[in-house]
């Protein structure tokens, strides 16, 4: 009896302990329930909603890059990433159209179907779909077309979804490639794509929605959307067709002379469009879609990146300042020797010749160094330096591509014994193609310097255009500009660029050849340049042609045929009719005889 009673007491004690524990748990649960429902119901409900909310960024469309006529040179196209949510990937069934029965499709079979559509390895697809089964964002394939994406989605494989992407496309291919630039994995890298990225890039929006425990959006729950803002289009001054033509022409000339590189640049001189670059063509051009296939030298515009001594092209500033200072008129007479010594420094002309009685116009047309110095020495060194700086020599030049063309010109106090002479005929300093173009642009534009530019306007998504404004500056008088055009006409009529003539049009220009500095010091080649204008009655276009390190002997190179082809194309494309006006070039020699050996 005693044993039975003891066991009953023990059982009763254990029941009391168990009951006490149950009561304690109920009190804890009740307290928690009271806190949730009575003390902080709103906070807990909000936390629950927050846990279910998902946010998706809505990127704004990147703006297009357009040519001067509105033709698309760079645009964004719709592409998709194909993604696997591994925990959701599973086999599924489809209805057999013949039997009407549900047929199972395994994960392996799904992987094979997707691999066939995407044309990639089946095992790679299966690995991306399954993996360790925990990856919620496993990349199967990148940047597929909408058509391919549709085929994959039509399979309705559980756990497979697509993610929209924006990818750049370049309809014109390598036309103006170094100007347009390109985009890498880390974003825009070169050209307009990089320099104008802020304008091209839109503002992202946001989509917020609730999902259930299975990750699927709840249709009737929270849904908010802040729309994205698309980027602006950037309208360039480049004429796509003229750019293509210039690229073909300069590539042919560069190949003809087996040169290191060549450039052809066309600038608009028409009223209201002064300074707009219509073409800036290099002998080799990068394809923005495949930049890695092009040598690094040609991934940026050579007209900005490759400074050189201009040679005789630099004589134009010497003659312009002499006209402006009133120390020379085109028909002034000079005795021009083959060799000339000044302050112990001797210079000479490219070819030996007899002593000639010449006009200033003839010295310019035949590009004689000795005659140029006779004229330039009438102006003190500081004044000559100041004029060179006014036209932009020695200053960087920026046209809106994010990089500056460099020019080097030391002040007179740092010149060596020869530079007071050599700077008068384009040696002893460096500048780029665009510096030369800028100088001739202002000489052709009534002496007014209008900054060169390559961006014409910014265009809002609604089509509103915001033109780029520029400020002009007068450098030379109208008289100087008019006389310089006549001097340039002499170069084509009887001087060093007779091949630049175009029937029915008055054409002027200036040749230039200078030694090219070698990597190890000294000079080991040449840079040849010709800049021409037409029609001189009312200049409409400027064309510059430059070839660096051509093969062959000095004096064997002629760029006027390339100039003539490009200028003729521009005049025809823009319906500039021939005027048939008579030349106004001055005589080159004193007296009746005008035909002397070079």
TrEMBL record:
Similarity field: Belongs to the transpeptidase family.
Main location: membrane
InterPro entries linked to this entry: Beta-lactam/transpept, Beta-lactam/transpept-like, PBP_dimer, PBP_dimer_sf, PCN-bd_Tpept
Keywords: Membrane
Subcellular location: Membrane
Species: Nesterenkonia massiliensis
Domain Penicillin-binding protein transpeptidase per the UniProt entry, residue ranges: 273-567
Domain Penicillin-binding protein dimerisation: 58-185
Name of this protein: Penicillin-binding protein 2
């Amino acid at each position: 009896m005693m044993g039975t009673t003891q066991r009953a007491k023990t059982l009763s004690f254990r029941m009391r302990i168990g009951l006490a524990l149950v009561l304690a748990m109920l009190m804890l649960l009740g307290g928690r329930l009271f806190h949730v429902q009575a003390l902080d119901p709103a906070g807990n409900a909000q936390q629950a909603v927050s846990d279910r909310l998902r946010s998706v960024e809505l990127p704004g469309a990147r703006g297009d890059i357009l040519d001067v006529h509105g033709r698309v040179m760079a645009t964004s196209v719709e592409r998709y990433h194909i993604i696997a949510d591994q925990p959701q990937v599973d086999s599924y069934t489809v209805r057999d159209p013949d039997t009407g029965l549900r047929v199972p499709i395994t994960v392996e079979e799904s992987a094979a179907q997707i691999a066939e559509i995407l044309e990639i390895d089946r095992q790679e697809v299966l690995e991306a779909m399954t993996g360790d089964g925990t990856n919620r964002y496993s990349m199967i394939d990148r940047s597929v077309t909408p058509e391919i994406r549709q085929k994959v989605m039509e399979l309705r494989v559980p756990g497979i979804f697509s993610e929209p992407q924006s990818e750049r496309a370049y309809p014109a291919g390598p036309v103006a490639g170094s100007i347009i630039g390109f985009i890498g994995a880390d974003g825009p890298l070169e050209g307009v794509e990089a320099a104008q990225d802020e304008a091209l890039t839109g503002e992202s929006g946001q989509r917020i929605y609730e999902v259930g425990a299975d990750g699927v959006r709840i249709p009737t729950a929270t849904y908010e959307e802040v729309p994205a803002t698309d980027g602006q289009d950037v309208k360039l001054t480049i004429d796509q067709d003229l750019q293509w033509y210039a690229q073909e022409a300069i590539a042919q000339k560069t190949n003809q002379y087996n040169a290191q590189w060549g450039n052809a640049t066309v600038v608009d001189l028409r009223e209201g469009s002064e300074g707009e670059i219509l073409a800036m063509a290099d002998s080799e051009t990068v394809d923005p879609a495949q930049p890695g296939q092009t040598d690094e030298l040609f991934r940026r515009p050579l007209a900005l990146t490759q400074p050189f001594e201009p040679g005789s092209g630099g004589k134009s500033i010497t003659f312009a300042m002499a006209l402006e200072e009133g120390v020379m008129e085109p028909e002034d007479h000079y005795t021009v020797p083959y060799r000339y010594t000044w302050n112990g420094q001797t210079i000479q002309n490219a070819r030996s010749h007899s002593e000639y009685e010449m006009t200033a116009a003839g010295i310019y047309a035949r590009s004689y160094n000795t005659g140029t110095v006779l004229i330039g020495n009438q102006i003190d060194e500081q004044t000559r330096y100041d004029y060179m700086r006014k036209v932009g020599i020695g200053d960087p030049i920026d046209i809106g591509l994010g990089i500056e063309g460099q020019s080097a010109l030391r002040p007179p106090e740092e010149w060596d014994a020869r530079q007071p002479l050599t700077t008068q005929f384009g040696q002893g300093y460096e500048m780029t193609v665009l510096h030369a173009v800028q100088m001739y642009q202002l000489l052709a534009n009534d002496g007014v310097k209008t900054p060169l530019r390559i961006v014409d306007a910014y265009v809002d998504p609604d089509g509103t255009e915001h033109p780029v404004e520029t400020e002009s500056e007068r450098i030379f008088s109208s008289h100087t500009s008019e006389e310089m055009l006549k001097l340039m006409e002499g170069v084509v009529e009887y001087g060093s660029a007779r091949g630049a003539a175009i029937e029915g049009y008055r054409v002027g220009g200036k040749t230039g050849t200078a030694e090219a500095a070698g990597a190890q010091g000294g000079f080991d080649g040449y840079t040849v340049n010709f800049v021409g204008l037409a029609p001189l009655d009312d200049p409409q276009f400027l064309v510059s042609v430059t070839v660096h390190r051509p093969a062959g002997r000095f004096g064997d190179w002629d760029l006027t045929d390339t100039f003539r082809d490009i200028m003729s194309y521009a005049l025809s494309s823009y319906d500039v009719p021939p005027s048939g006006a008579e030349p106004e070039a001055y005589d080159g020699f004193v007296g009746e005889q005008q035909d002397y050996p070079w």
